[in-house]
UniProtKB/TrEMBL annotation:
Residues 1-22 are annotated as: Disordered. InterPro entries: NDR1-like. This is NDR1/HIN1-like protein 13. GO terms for cellular component: membrane. It is found in: Membrane. One of its GO terms (biological process) is defense response to other organism. SUPFAM superfamilies: LEA14-like. The keyword Ribonucleoprotein does not apply. Keywords: Membrane, Transmembrane, Transmembrane helix. The lineage of its organism: Eukaryota, Viridiplantae, Streptophyta, Embryophyta, Tracheophyta. The gene is LOC107797494. The chain crosses the membrane at residues 64-94.
């Protein structure tokens, strides 16, 4: 009986490998392996939705802030423009003017500097003042509070006085008479030296008058808030009295200036 020789399942010179078989058996593992070791692959990154939302919210807040600032500035400019237009119309229609003051006369009836035994100097003075005030407006009325009046000579107070309140009608002149006095006022050394130096002047003692008051301006049914004014009168020189007769001061070069304490008038109905 002849034996049959069967060829081997593994040919000579052929190397057996199991990788294709494993790959064919598990293709998912091969895919993961290729993905892990691919050097040219761009890594996948999730979309940063939270960052975009935060950035969008920040832009919205900034936009709202800019819009609020824009409309606020625009509103202020419109209000200022309307106020300027109203002021210009009021000025053209009524042409408001400040009241004027002028010194009619000033008489020094008493002026004494007395030095006592304790080496203190006392001032006693009395002045008679007459001045006039005019309302140059045609439709504006000035209502004055009581006026306080102070006479000075180079910042040294000589006498004080007052005048009751009154109404300045349009195109009307009001005459003011007031008596200013100072009784035995103690002066410091600098004030005494200043007064004695001023008394030696040929033109006489320089006198400055300060008047302070509050005024309300009326026009038809409109009226303003109380406005403070100060009247400063300078250019007055007067000698001291030699006897019982008062000395008449020179008021030819006297000029009075009116200054508003509040620049803005607030009108109410």
């Amino acid at each position: 009986m002849t034996d049959r020789v069967y060829p081997s399942a593994k040919p000579n010179g052929t190397t057996t490998t199991t990788a294709p078989t494993a790959t064919a058996a598990n293709p998912a593992a091969a895919t993961v392996k290729n993905q892990m070791y691919n050097p040219n692959r761009i890594p996948h990154r999730p979309t940063p939705t939270a960052y975009h939302r935060h950035n969008h919210r920040r832009c919205s807040c900034r936009r709202c802030f800019c819009m609020c600032c824009f409309w606020s500035i625009l509103s202020i400019l419109i209000i200022l423009l309307l106020a300027a237009i109203a002021g210009a119309i009021f000025y053209v229609l009524y042409h408001p003017q400040r009241p004027t003051f002028s010194i009619s006369s000033l008489k020094i009836s008493q002026f004494n500097l007395t030095t006592t035994a304790d080496d203190t100097t006392h001032l006693t003075a009395k002045l008679n003042l007459t001045l006039s005030t005019k309302n140059p407006n045609k439709k504006l009325i000035y209502n004055y509070n009581p006026i306080s009046i102070t006479a000075l000579s180079n910042q040294v107070v000589l006498a004080n006085g007052s005048f009751p309140g009154f109404t300045g009608s349009p195109n009307n002149i009001t005459i003011i008479h007031s008596t200013l006095s100072m009784v035995s006022q103690v002066l410091d050394a600098d004030s005494v030296s200043s007064l004695k130096s001023d008394l030696k002047r040929k033109a006489g003692l320089p006198v400055t008058l300060l008047m302070d008051t509050m005024v309300i301006v009326k026009m038809d049914k409109l009226k303003s808030k109380r406005v403070g004014i100060r009247v400063t009168c300078e250019g007055i020189h007067g000698p001291t009295p030699k006897g019982k007769a008062p000395a008449v001061a020179s008021t030819n070069n006297a000029k009075c200036k009116v200054d508003l304490r509040v620049k803005i008038l607030k009108w109410t109905f």
